[in-house]
Amino acid sequence: MPQELLLQVTPEIAADQAQLKNHVAKLIKLAANEIQQLVILKRSIDARQKTIKLNLKVAIYLKGEVFKELKLELPDYPNVATAQEVIVVGAGPAGLFAALQLIELGLKPIVLERGKDVRGRRRDLKAINVDHIVNEDSNYCFGEGGAGTYSDGKLYTRSKKRGDVTRILELLVAYGATPDILVEAHPHIGTNKLPQIIQDIREKIIACGGQVLFETRVTDILLKNNEVEGVVTQKGDTILANKLILATGHSARDIFELLDRKKILIEAKPFALGVRAEHPQSLIDSIQYSCDYRGALLPPAPYSIVKQVGGRGMYSFCMCPGGVIAPCATSPGEVVTNGWSPSKRDQATANSGIVIELKLEDFKPFAKFGALAGMEFQKSIEQKAWHLAGESQKVPAQRMIDFTKNIVSSEIPKTSYVPGTTSVEMGQVFPGFLTQILREGFTEFGKSMRGYLTNEAILHAPESRTSSPVRIPRDPITYEHLQIKGLYPCGEGAGYAGGIISAAIDGEKCALMIGESLHKKTSNQ
């Protein structure tokens, strides 16, 4: 058995295998040539002191010990072409991993995706960036892989109770992700690498006898005696199955409206809302690493910051080092921002959502919409921003200090947001209480991160799709909807996940619950 060791080293030692081996040999009081192999199991950066160190967990294989290179393989998926069918609505991480798990269980997934495949989506992303044209079915939120495909590809979750994170990471590696995601404390894949991985997952689903149908938007759910019978698509096709995983993402407003119309139980859910702040990456590096230049051995610095302001949490969300800001509207007449990074995180700017937690009481002006009150609140801000910025995909923007002082910025430099910006006093975008909290909060952020509060930073509004404004209630044990038999609300859109990993885990869990339900039914017959 290899010996495992926790140690702290400089970036120079961590980057050089020979130096690292010599360092470890001294720690364990052996000659370096007695060490056959060093394997880094975990890696994180400690930048709390002026001298930056890397925390490593290593496995030490001495001469004579058996060492095998890690090789992750896919499960032995059966062919399910003639098996019982389960409808999966949505081809984001929840839907795709639900489909893979269904195949493992010997069930046939029929994946219905309103958007296009990963390649087809690119034309529609260009249209929104260059021509300001929003395709309601194919955009940064809808299409194969969901919102995660063209995102930073972050692969960590704050919750340790969600499930087997390692299993999801290992599956992603088996489908082509770099093994580094198993090592890094905050792993990510990068938006340039995710599309191929997602395409490979889809091809595996099809090769095993499953179906994946693109440009197939669900417009109705067929019910009989409060049990699922199937769905109807926008083309008028009927697809029958008595098990349905609903994994449509946090922006599928038409699905929330459909459920509400059909009197299928849903409820308003609090979420967070704010702006996306962009700084020069070099500035964030200098703050986080306490240096003028980070050098080649350190990655672009991220940051995470949380404050209590006015009795509410204000915090960074989906921070993208070396990344860009993207237009994420899903309907004409609204603007929405989000951020992503390529795998190398090599862009000149860093961006992060800076958001404030909302409460159900904030949605009272929209009470007439019932369970959709939060969604309508969200929509009203996105539409107001669209009007203020000139009724295109340009977004309202303001320099950070100018915002805190209620000054319209005289000019906005070019930012990474391709459709462009319009200089606006952004207090007009938000309700007064949110504006006040944001202004106070940025001042507090500046006290914790010296240099963060600067007019070099440009705020873009709004960052409004942090999570779903609706929860679709389900039984905590069976994962089945509380009212509709055979309906399994799943992932971010249903209010049970917050990112690629947690959504994928939730997709697997829903599939497992369906397998268990069908097994019980068979056993009782």
TrEMBL record:
Pfam families documented for this protein: FAD-depend_C, Pyr_redox_2
What GO molecular function annotation could you give as one example from this UniProt entry?
A: oxidoreductase activity
Q: Which SUPFAM superfamilies does the entry mention? A: FAD/NAD(P)-binding domain
Q: Which residues form the FAD-dependent protein C-terminal domain?
A: 270-466
Segments forming domain FAD/NAD(P)-binding: 85-254
Q: What is this protein called?
A: FAD-binding protein
Its taxonomic path starts at:
Bacteria, Pseudomonadati, Bacteroidota, Flavobacteriia, Flavobacteriales
